[in-house]
């Protein structure tokens, strides 16, 4: 039987749960035995799923027989099958907000197997089983932490971390202890992520998290920064780490997250403004990331606002100009410098797209647009076409001033 059939996958789990209904008249042991025989004989994925559904339909009634098989299994194939079905049934209970009664031997067996390196399909099933079962932090936390420390698979790291979180507050001391002894920054980053829900942290845990802010592992730095931030810590190293992440961001998600952390930890310095401006110019290619950087600049004091104005002034094309001016920061909506830049862009525009973009931006800022237009119209060096543009903008912006 192909092993892939017994590793829990979202699509298969969903299809099984659709067939899960309470109540079954036939003896549970007979149904389980019959279903396993069919699973072992299955030639196709569909046949296997149909046999698995027979067990899942039993719901909690199947747990004792599945546990017996799980405990007695002598090889990984048997453990993969039974852990898969147990996790599926317990997921069903969890989604229905029921707490099933577990046979006393299930959790100790699961705890033992979590410590033992195995095929990734089995390890994934065990992590899912631990996450869907009722919380048993004292028994399951050590094994889950051992699995999290040894696995190099990102998906399994996420599943195992979630299973640890599902253990509730009782898991926190285990996680903190593991963090303090950890010498692996990747593992430490996973642990920092799990601790993000903690509003208070011991001083030694905070110190360990601060040390991660200087890690070469970008994700570890990010997790440590978020955890410290949520715990109310504002160490200056958090800004250094955020700026480092901003500089090294490769993906849109990394750039957005780094920008948020810079904004959260900004000291409103020229250093921050320069870093955000450079990121806008060299890394941001979509309106989403550009808008996030603009917000961060607006929260970074005078240097940040000046950096924004410089970006507007030097916008290389209409798209960037539109992204910068579609929503001018509130801190600058009454600043005449914005109107001056928009008027200059309107006057210098070489195509209709830029004319429309500048007109639209000015029209949304009538209180500063009207004086700037009036001043521009008083110039004697503008051609007829430019004068017409200014009059058109004035009309859109509520010109003349007496109509405000």
Automatic annotation (TrEMBL):
Keywords: Signal. Residues 1-25 form the signal peptide. InterPro entries: ARM-like, ARM-type_fold. This is HEAT repeat domain-containing protein. It comes from Tianweitania populi.
């Amino acid at each position: 039987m192909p092993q892939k059939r017994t590793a829990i996958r979202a699509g298969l789990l969903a299809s099984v749960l659709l067939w899960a209904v309470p109540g079954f008249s036939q003896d549970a042991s007979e149904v389980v035995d019959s279903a396993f025989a069919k699973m072992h004989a299955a030639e196709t994925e569909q046949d296997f799923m149909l046999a698995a559904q027979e067990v899942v339909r039993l719901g909690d009634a199947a747990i004792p027989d599945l546990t017996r098989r799980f405990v007695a299994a002598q090889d990984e194939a048997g453990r993969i099958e039974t852990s898969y079905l147990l996790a599926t049934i317990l997921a069903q209970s969890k989604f229905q907000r029921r707490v099933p009664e577990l046979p006393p031997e299930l959790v100790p067996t699961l705890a033992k197997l979590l410590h033992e390196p195995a095929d990734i399909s089995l390890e994934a099933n065990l992590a899912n089983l631990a996450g869907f079962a009722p919380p048993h932090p004292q028994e399951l936390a050590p094994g889950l932490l051992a699995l999290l420390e040894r696995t190099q698979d990102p998906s399994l790291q996420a599943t195992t971390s979630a299973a640890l979180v599902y253990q509730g507050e009782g898991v926190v001391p285990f996680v903190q202890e593991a963090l303090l002894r950890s010498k692996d920054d990747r593992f430490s980053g996973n642990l920092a992520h799990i601790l993000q829900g903690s509003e208070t942290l011991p001083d030694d845990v905070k110190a360990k998290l601060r040390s991660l802010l200087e890690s070469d592992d970008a994700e570890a730095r990010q997790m440590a920064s978020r955890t410290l931030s949520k715990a109310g810590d504002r160490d200056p190293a958090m800004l250094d780490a955020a700026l480092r992440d901003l500089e090294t961001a490769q993906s849109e998600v990394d750039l957005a997250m780094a920008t948020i952390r810079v904004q959260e930890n900004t000291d409103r310095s020229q250093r921050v403004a320069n870093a955000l401006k450079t990121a806008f110019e060299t890394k941001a290619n979509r309106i989403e990331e550009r808008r996030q950087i603009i917000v961060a600049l607006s929260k970074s004091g005078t240097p940040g606002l000046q950096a924004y104005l410089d970006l507007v002034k030097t916008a290389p094309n209409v798209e960037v100009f539109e992204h910068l001016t579609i929503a001018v920061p509130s801190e600058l909506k009454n600043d005449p410098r914005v109107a001056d830049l928009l008027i200059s862009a309107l006057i210098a525009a070489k195509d209709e797209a830029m004319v429309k973009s500048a007109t639209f931006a000015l029209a949304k800022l009538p209180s500063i647009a009207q004086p700037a237009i009036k001043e521009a119209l008083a110039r004697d060096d503008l051609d007829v076409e430019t004068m017409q543009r200014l009059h058109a903008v004035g009309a859109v912006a509520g010109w003349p001033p007496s109509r405000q």
